[in-house]
Amino acid sequence: MKDVSFVDYLLVGLAVTTLVLAAEERVSCPKLCVCEIRPWFSPSSVYMEAPTVDCNDLGLFDLPMRLPSDTQVVLLQTNNIAKIEHPLDYLPNITEIDLSQNNLSSISDVNIGHLPQLLSLHMEENWICALLDNSLSQLTNLQELYLNHNLISFISPEAFRGLQSLLRLHLNSNRLQSIKSEWFEPLPNLEILMIGENPVLSIQDMSFKPLRNLRSLVLTRMNLSQISDDSLLGLDNLESISFYDNTFPKVPHGALKHLKSLKFLDLNKNPIGRIQRGDFVDMLHLKELGINSMPELVSIDSFSLNNLPELTKIEATNNPKLSYVHPNAFYRLPRLETLMLNGNALSALHRFTVESLPNLREVSMHSNPIRCDCVVRWMNMNKTNIRFMEPDSLFCVEPPEYEGQHVRQVHFREMMEICLPLISSESFPTQISVESGRSVSLHCRAFAEPEPDIYWVTPSGIRVNPNAVSERFYMHPEGTLDIYDITKSEAGLYTCVAHNLVGADLKSVSLEVNGYFPQPVNDSLNVNIESVQANSVLISWNASHGSLAPNIKWYTMPSANHPTVAFTARVPSDVTVYNLTHLNPATQYKVCVDIQSIHHKHDTKCVNVLTKGLQQAVKDFQIWDMALIAAFGVLFIVISVACFLIYVFMRNNCIYGELKRYPSKMSLMSETSQKSPFTRLWISGKGMPAAVEVKATVINVLDNAF
């Protein structure tokens, strides 16, 4: 009995001890913190449920003295901790510590001890200014280190010593002015580096060469306008790179060509003006390309995306000046499935552009100023299986009769098969100011069917054609005019003309050099009538230097027999003569020429003209014919008389000379002429016989008659 009682007491004691220990374990969760099991993902994306102590946003100045021994994750975000004096060595299972948004100013103030299981350390948004040698050398198994949004301006060559297991390093949004390859030598296994948003002046050659296993590099918002061709050398395994929100004026293809394994390229929000041929050469593994939100992008030129066999997605959205995608822009892209072009200034997407992409599945064209004419007829012909994203947001903007209608509700038979060129105003500025000695590019693009030809007219009236060689000018085939080494002589008005067999469109841009622009001559506008016919009137006018393209308007004067009908035309700025055709005979017209100057001043002159009547036109025509016939008759008579006189004169001279030099033949000629009047002698010009022609009549006589 006693033995049984002793056993009972022993069991009761053990139970009480267990309850006390459990109570102590529960009490060990720091005050105001939350201790619970939460989902957690390792740096390699392995899911587990981890005991977590959440002390976020409590205004703590010190780390809690004691944490539960099984703690794996400690969250101390958004507090006032400036220093950690007590190591956390007593936590054998700890894998993540978050000290972001505190008051830490030095890594040496973070004494967390030797933590072999620690995988992630967050210290972003503190006040750390420098990383000294061996700052975190005790964390030999650390895989993720977040130091972004601090004040780091200096990194010692041995700062990352001991972190050979590090996979992810965030140094973005600090104050680094250079990037040195020696920093990364202790990090042979680093896979992800974010170092953007630092005021780096330039990236030197082979700055990232020690990072042979790097897969992702983020260089955002660093104000980079160029990088050397060898700056990315050594990144043979890099798969993703981001140049988001820099200042590149063109694609850095010289540096990108070394990234043979690149799959994802982010060029968003750079002031790149054109996507050109050769920008993405030899990127055989590229899968996705982002060229969104580019404020200066005006065109994707011919063969600019060529021979990219693994490319599946192109995003070129929200580019306010992107008005032209060349019909041959995309070539040999066999796997492209998604083409996103929404939110641009595109008036059309050419049929051939789509037909050149055999695997294309979906296109995004909404939120563009679509012109519903011949170029987009293919969208409504039901000959394609391509899906249009957000078709309800795809509206016609032009022509006026289709404005506001859904593009795919306009029947293709209502659209003409050929159409006028249209130069996009969104991509064409009205005025540009530059300094002397600089160069500038003027972009001009136009859609039409047939495809239009483009040329430029300089302020001096010189026509610049594609690929023409000049000291100051060069025009690219797509329509961009480059002006080199600008002086004040190049200031003035430049006009782009796009034309095909249907008609033409033109737009002008004024170029100001060092604040100088040639002032127009104060000559008043004069309009002259050069010729008047029954169905046409030829007019001319004087245009002063610096004038924009003239607008011509003509209309019939109101009368009881003819309602007022108005017509308009716009001609290039270098044209000063225009022929009005298809007019009505014997009709009073008013013709006005309106010319706007660079200073937005209008000069308008009008003249009245009466076309000839049909009877008057026929009478004039008959008079003209009679006069023409009479002139030809007189000319014929004069020529005939002259020829006759010359002939008589030459004949008399020849015969007289012959008789004078050969008098012995005179009697023979007399006798011959008397006996046979049908015989004649032809004499050459020198008096010698040239030929003798005998015309005889045969008379049947007997032999004895002689």
From TrEMBL:
Compartments reported by the entry: Membrane
Keywords, in A-Z order: Disulfide bond, Glycoprotein, Immunoglobulin domain, Leucine-rich repeat, Membrane, Repeat, Signal, Transmembrane, Transmembrane helix
Residues annotated as signal peptide: 1-22
Membrane-crossing residue ranges in chain numbering: 626-650
Ranges in a coiled coil: none
PROSITE patterns to which the protein is assigned, alphabetical: IG_LIKE (PS50835), LRR (PS51450)
Main location: membrane
Annotated Ig-like domain residues: 421-514
Gene Ontology cellular component annotations, sorted alphabetically: membrane
Topological type in the membrane: Single-pass type I membrane protein
Protein name in the entry: Leucine rich repeat neuronal 3b
Taxonomic placement: Eukaryota, Metazoa, Chordata, Craniata, Vertebrata
